[in-house]
Amino acid sequence: MQKDFAAKEECEHGDWLSWLKENFGWREDTAQKYMRIGTVFGKNRPGRHLEDISIDAKALYLLSAPAIPQEVRDEALEKKTLTLKEAEALVAKAVKKAIDEQEQEAKQETEGKLADI
């Protein structure tokens, strides 16, 4: 869990889940998703906040995942609105780019080894 969330930090050990249920009616995994979004896109993150865009909640969940590159998040925030489908397309494009780069590196490495034979 992140340490930037005062409500959780203020709860006594073992009281977080009951506080969460009483105050929000959320399950812990839902709260964790929102806390992760706050950590990734919060106001204390210059240039990465959500005040001026309309973004689908599931797109936020996806974009705040630890494996998502910052470049993808930055590209998403350049838009005025963002749907889950659009966020998925941005992630797919980044994955394809990473795969293409790995394939190119492997090809160059193979060519280098073949040249040494």
Q: Which blocks of ≥5 consecutive residues have pLDDT under 50?
A: none
How widely separated are the two ends?
52 Å
Strand content: under 5%
Task: Give the % helix.
Answer: 55-70%
Give your account of this protein's structure.
The protein is mainly α and 117 residues long. The protein has one domain. The chain has 6 helices and 2 strands. A two-stranded parallel sheet has the order 1-2. Helix 4 (57-63) packs parallel to helix 6. The protein starts with 5 loop residues before the first helix and ends with a helix. The mean pLDDT is 84.
Features:
mainly alpha, 2 strands, 64% helix
Summarize the structure.
The chain is mainly α and 117 residues long. 64% of the residues lie in helices and 3% in strands. The model has no long low-confidence stretch (mean pLDDT 84).
Topology diagram in text:
Blueprint: H1 6-10, H2 16-24, H3 28-41, E1 54-55, H4 57-63, H5 70-77, E2 81-82, H6 84-115
Parallel strand pairs: 1-2
